Amino acid sequence: MTDHPSLQPYADAWAHSIEAISELVSPLVEGEWNRATECPGWSVRDIVSHVIGSECEMLGDPRPIHSLPRDLFHVKDEVSRRVEVQVDVRRCHTAPEMTSELEYTIIRRSRQLRNEKRDPSTMVMTPLGREMTLERALRLRAFDVWVHEQDLRRALGRPGNLDSPGAHVARDVLLEGLPKVVAKDAGAPPNSAVVLDVSGPLEFMRTVRVDAEGRGTVDGSVSLGPAVTLATDWETYLRLACGRVRPAAVRGNLKIEGDQALADAILAHFAITP
Predict the structure, then answer these.
(1) pTM above 0.85, yes or no
(2) Domain range holding 150?
(3) Is the domain of 17 the same as that of 136?
């Protein structure tokens, strides 16, 4: 247990997801580590490398000194370049090396979280090179690890944990970005509303309201006469919001009512993760 109750739900969600990742990859043979995932340019090995590297940085380990190849098409900016270093440095590692490092990192990080004494408002450096509060950083680690657990499950054909503690954290993180998507990016008109109706293992309905000044907010109340109602299942919502698929690829999983042009604009900007 941490000293601060506000951190414990995120620590628990993180632990549930990262232990699930360890269980998923421990029995894999060497070739399965190279299986492609929906993360552009990343294999199963690369996702696990990213998870390991991110947790090592949260532990305060020094970043690897490593030069990236010039032909990595998915590395497009400084943030992706920073993230890729922890991935590329492990591309030559064997399956036993990967599982051993993952297990050791989980042990070290779990111990750190159990003994955490810092105030949740303490500013810490994150793997993306940005400072934020300890509480938000841990929340985003729980989010990131669960999302990558799902990436691995889809790549390996092992579905599950779509309603786990990490799923609830991910839902809340993704919904935080929805007002900007609707009001600013998609340009929903003032005094309008957009309803998102999600079914599946994690069911919820949210309304994004755009006020007279064009500012968006999200709440759980029902809206009468929304400009758009967008219905889909939880996994499709996750894949769209995390940029894993384009809307055209999952059109059969989407039900749209109302202003089609606005709905298309919302879906075009739906991805909120880097």
Answers:
(1) yes
(2) 8-159
(3) yes
